[in-house]
Here is the input.
Amino acid sequence: MAHAKTSYVCLSCRASYKQPYDRTRQRACPRCAEPLIHAGSAFAPPRRRDAAAWRALTVLLNAGVGFHKSCCGGPGYRPRTLREVRERMTYAQRSGEPIALALVRRDVG
Here is the structure.
């Protein structure tokens, strides 16, 4: 039986690639040869020309937030705009909550 595929992302090229998951193998972007970041099997990439969405995605992936399926469906809430990211970063700073946890909070008010 074939292994399920998962998404790997190149932030500099704004590209996503579905490949079989292998923890031991480091993947490189076919366009620029930079290392790809494992985003998860529930990842849906923004359009390449949506620069704000890619900046928000960059913050999420660099904070260690992935897009993995849970037992009941998708990955849960993920901010899609820079405004949502800024609100959660401010909340994390004020509350002392880890950034990765604050970024996946639906409500920060």
About this structure: The first helix runs from residue 51 to 62. The helical segments are 51-62, 82-95, 99-103.
